[in-house]
Input
Amino acid sequence: MNSMLYTHGTGAFDAFGTLIVVLFIGSLIYAIAKGASQWSRNNNSPDVTENATVVAKRTEVWGHEHAHTNYYVTFQLENGERLELPVKGTEYGMLSESDHGRLSHQGTRYHGFQRD
Output
């Protein structure tokens, strides 16, 4: 057998492996920074309660062995602006498109919806 098959690796492979590790760590740092930035923006936003209408609902399913679902509801505010907020599954199930009421939120943090 050729003993070259059992050597550690070539310089090109080592460089590629290093690149993958650097990209992974960079992506992880970016995701953490983005989440911290959104958390800070939400904390610095005022608690707001305003008239709104539920105009859309969507889910996002992810995972392989154990599926997870994220729930989102889009609200249209009185001024015409639309705001999509993540909500808990129980809230998602209680809301229907075209519901009118009072939306409470802080930035992108959903606090509740009181139907008229």
Remarks:
- The chain is about 35% helix and 40% strand.
- Residues 47-115 form a domain with the OB fold (Dihydrolipoamide Acetyltransferase, E2P) fold (CATH 2.40.50.660).
- Residues 11-44 form the longest helix (34 residues).
